[in-house]
């Protein structure tokens, strides 16, 4: 099953990650929402944990989350081959219910910001279920896609 | 941590429904294993998951309110192809 998304505005919805969220231990329930406000299209949004995150060093952080981007606007050619494992976790029956997002890591200057296209987030919007899809790709390909530059407007790039 | 010694063709059971089998020991000291697990159980190479976890932690901890406002405005500029993208905040503290 291959998923793409042409979404121009992120939906505001609660999303459960049944197998958790890598790097954010203890976080399973998230709130997804668009950034920027207004009705204009915006590919960026915020995925905020509704549960405290318990890091291995003992810190407990509330309200932590990551910025995300729909992939359809920024990388229209990207498609993700969802495997059986992810399909089962997402309870995905219709690929049309799948939204593909990328975690965005903001850096300074903004031109250095990147998106993780190696391990996209897939959300079944019908069920409110999500998973960060980890492909069984060679380790050598991680660095190439985990830090994908954002396609910024000419005025910023 | 439990440590077991297994030969090629021998298996390890984890719970009722996860089976790990040693398939081959290669010349370069690598071991080929086969894993059988329920569809809902994610199985990943640890180094991949660790790289993704680190990137997620970086993404989660690198954000301030000002950054989010900038990203929101930037998103509208990107989506519309507008040349009037927002100014990036300063690079202090990074």
Labels describing this entry:
heterodimer; A: 157 residues; mainly beta; BH3618-like; eight-stranded antiparallel beta sheet; two-stranded antiparallel ribbon; 3 helices; 35% strand; globular; B: 94 residues; alpha+beta; 2 domains; three-stranded antiparallel beta sheet; 3 strands; 34% helix; disordered C terminus
Detail the topology: elements first, then pairings.
The complex is a heterodimer of chains A (157) and B (94).
Chain A: E1 2-3, E2 13-16, E3 29-34, E4 44-49, E5 53-54, E6 60-61, E7 65-70, H1 71-74, E8 80-81, H2 84-90, E9 98-105, E10 114-124, E11 129-132, H3 142-146, E12 148-149
Chain B: E1 11-14, E2 18-25, E3 31-36, H1 46-61, H2 65-80
Antiparallel strand pairs in B: 1-2, 2-3
Description:
Chain A has a single domain (2-149), classed as BH3618-like, CATH 2.30.290.10. The longest helix of chain A is centred in the middle third of the chain and has 7 residues, at 84-90. The model of chain A has no long low-confidence stretch (mean pLDDT 85). Chain A has helices spanning 71-74, 84-90, 142-146; strands at residues 2-3, 13-16, 29-34, 44-49, 53-54, 60-61, 65-70, 80-81, 98-105, 114-124, 129-132, 148-149. In chain A, the strands form three sheets. In chain A, strands 2, 3, 4, 7, 9, 10, 11 and 12 form an eight-stranded antiparallel beta sheet that branches. Chain A is built from three helices and twelve strands. With 157 residues, chain A is mainly beta. In chain A, 10% of the residues lie in helices and 35% in strands. With 94 residues, chain B is of the alpha+beta class. Chain B folds into two domains: 1-40, no CATH class; 44-89, no CATH class. Chain B has two helices and three strands. Chain B has a three-stranded antiparallel beta sheet with strand order 1-2-3, with no helix packed on it. Chain B starts with 10 loop residues before the first strand and ends in a 14-residue tail after the last helix. The interface between A and B is large, with 58 and 47 residues.
């Amino acid at each position: 099953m291959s998923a793409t998304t042409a979404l121009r505005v992120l939906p505001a919805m609660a999303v459960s990650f049944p197998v958790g969220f890598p790097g954010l231990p203890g976080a399973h329930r998230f709130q997804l929402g668009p950034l920027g406000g207004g009705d204009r299209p915006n590919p960026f949004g915020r995925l905020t944990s509704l549960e405290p995150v318990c890091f291995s060093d003992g810190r407990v952080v509330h309200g932590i989350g990551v910025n995300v981007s729909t992939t359809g606007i920024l990388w229209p050619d990207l498609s993700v081959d969802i495997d059986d494992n992810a399909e089962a976790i997402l309870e995905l029956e219709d690929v049309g219910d799948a939204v593909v997002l990328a975690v965005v890591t903001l850096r300074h200057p903004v031109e250095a910001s990147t998106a993780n296209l190696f391990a996209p987030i897939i959300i079944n919007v019908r069920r409110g279920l999500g998973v960060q899809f980890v492909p069984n790709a060679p380790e050598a390909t991680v660095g190439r896609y985990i830090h994908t530059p954002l396609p910024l407007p000419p005025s910023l790039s | 941590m439990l440590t077991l010694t297994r030969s090629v063709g021998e298996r390890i059971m984890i719970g009722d429904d996860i089976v790990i089998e040693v398939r081959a020991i290669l010349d370069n000291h690598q071991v080929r294993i086969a894993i059988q697990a329920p569809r809902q159980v994610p199985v990943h190479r640890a180094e991949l998951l660790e790289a993704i976890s680190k990137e997620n932690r970086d993404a989660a901890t690198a954000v301030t309110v000002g950054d989010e406002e900038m990203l929101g405005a930037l998103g509208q500029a990107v989506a519309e192809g507008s040349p009037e993208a927002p100014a990036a905040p300063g690079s202090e503290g990074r």
